[in-house]
Design a protein that fits this description.
homotetramer, 205 residues, mainly alpha, 9 helices, 78% helix
Amino acid sequence: MFERMTESPSRVEAFSDGVFAIAITLLILEIRVPHGDHDLWAGLVALWPSYIAFVMSFAVILIMWINHHELLRLVRGVNYPFLFANGLLLLTVTFVPYPTAVLAQNLATPDAKVAVAFYCATFVAQAVCWNLLFATIVRGGLLRQEVTAESVSNVRRAYYLGVLVYAAATALAFVRPVLGLLLNISLWVVWIRLGYRAESSAVRR
Amino acid sequence: MFERMTESPSRVEAFSDGVFAIAITLLILEIRVPHGDHDLWAGLVALWPSYIAFVMSFAVILIMWINHHELLRLVRGVNYPFLFANGLLLLTVTFVPYPTAVLAQNLATPDAKVAVAFYCATFVAQAVCWNLLFATIVRGGLLRQEVTAESVSNVRRAYYLGVLVYAAATALAFVRPVLGLLLNISLWVVWIRLGYRAESSAVRR
Amino acid sequence: MFERMTESPSRVEAFSDGVFAIAITLLILEIRVPHGDHDLWAGLVALWPSYIAFVMSFAVILIMWINHHELLRLVRGVNYPFLFANGLLLLTVTFVPYPTAVLAQNLATPDAKVAVAFYCATFVAQAVCWNLLFATIVRGGLLRQEVTAESVSNVRRAYYLGVLVYAAATALAFVRPVLGLLLNISLWVVWIRLGYRAESSAVRR
Amino acid sequence: MFERMTESPSRVEAFSDGVFAIAITLLILEIRVPHGDHDLWAGLVALWPSYIAFVMSFAVILIMWINHHELLRLVRGVNYPFLFANGLLLLTVTFVPYPTAVLAQNLATPDAKVAVAFYCATFVAQAVCWNLLFATIVRGGLLRQEVTAESVSNVRRAYYLGVLVYAAATALAFVRPVLGLLLNISLWVVWIRLGYRAESSAVRR
């Protein structure tokens, strides 16, 4: 057990970085070149839901990547449960291009409610995985000694909050899809601020 | 010859990691956004075979990546035959998105038997490649000195078992596709447990 | 604040490299295999706009990757604003395959004007992001001490120039699309020469 | 100038590895799941040209990656011309999935001649780029001191041979496409053996 904990997280970090980088770059494949009778300009403009979905998902994956980076700075080693909890989180990251495409193709249609709810529900699942990963880290004793109890509870509170707010955004989407999306986006601030705080209380590697 | 054996496996490791990370992330591209007359919700639900296929293939590639990692921890260097045996294994990894798509699009149809058999047969081929890679490692004298004969026979036994069970799953798929899939999944436990054992008897790098 | 500045840019560099490498490799997916009644040779030849678009975008992403590399050699550490400014730049990089596909499919049609303008406008946005990133670096005090004021003003001037020339190319595209494209390409020389100069005045890492 | 030559090739190596890994993994996207009236088994069998094309291109990219690795072991540093010559080579690598798809979809049709010729012509271009890259290395004085003149002429001869044989395969394809493909494949032996020889005369890093 002990030797696992002292194994450096560098290779799992590199693998995770690869998955984040690929997922973020695949998003563009979902935007299809406009075809049809109308002129190109109108076609490009008509794709505004695709651009919104692209930018939103790009931003959230970028923020998640930064947070993943900050989280791993708190960790002094990895064990087997960590690898699987991290894998589960990556599964929800690689899944993102799909709800993004669903959102893009339905945001301007009567199906917008379902599309936004599906999009937000993906992040409920992802937020649950962040909690799971953090619980795995804490239970496995993988945190660096310098990480204070305050840091731990800060991170934990933010991760709980994530699940709740994403769930609320999902519910809201069925009534007011635009508000659901805005609530979804509002969490970016939490994740960005969380990263800052985790960082200042952590040591440098 | 000698100098090859002392070459570090780090670059082949990075390349392999890249291939695993890309293959695992490409899986999502096979899930197509639902179109048609029925509402979006029904369309999303009707894609359940795609979600099952996605999760199954994600899990197996993740586990294979972890096992690849563990296997390379037993190795003190690489030679030319290793590079090609490893490349053959990666070929079967990059192939996975295709049988996954075949499975996704046929699991709910009368063609399910063929689709599951094709999916399982892919892993027969992959299991053969694991055996080939391990034989290349052992014959080339690439194992670290600390690796015990017991470790070697543990790994070898598990790899043999993999071929047999995947072959059985392929055969079973023609009769009962669901049971074939479940047998296929049951091997995850073997791979996960194998990793554990290899790890505890290996030294830290 | 201080500890952030001394954090090494290596992980953000690896992530950025991954995004550049993936974006440059995805370009080929936009070229579709010709189908139809005419023979294959004619079909392959008829895709000349795709080849032009592919080569142009490949070249520009390659050059941008080299410049990103050179820029980060001037930097001694990264902070949070840097991560987001860099992320914004990467967003415009991952976006490139889309205007490339638009260009490829419309270069030989009456819509060429709009397609070229859209293509060039993408690089206006990207040039703005380079300015933003550099401003973030300078304001955050992230430059290495050895970087001279002359280097800084060289880079800044080239980045300003980029915005202006790309904007001119966009405007020109509405009148003469071919000239717009050529003006766009002419900037490659600026970026390549910029890299040279930044490099000779920077220290080795 | 001097400081460039002593810069380590590690980052360009990592970027190149990324491009090789992505290109090799994207190949699978070109194999489409069979649809239609006939049963799935017949559909899977009918895709044999896709499997052949997939395996051929996978093998050649793998071998090229290994050779790139070996080539860079001869190099003590990189300069600007190297970066662009290497970029040009990577352009031909990322292009491979396209002729592969063309080959897959036309190998069993009367257009096989054109498809094989197009496929082989891609490797003529790639072989020219290997020559260009090597010339850039030699002229720039980037070779390690330990690399003997014999090694250099070995590599050069093999690279010349590559251009000639690929050109011959292209010409042959118009008459006998199957022989053209076989001649194309026969070069794998040259590349594999070249790697061996370069390796034994190079020093370890």
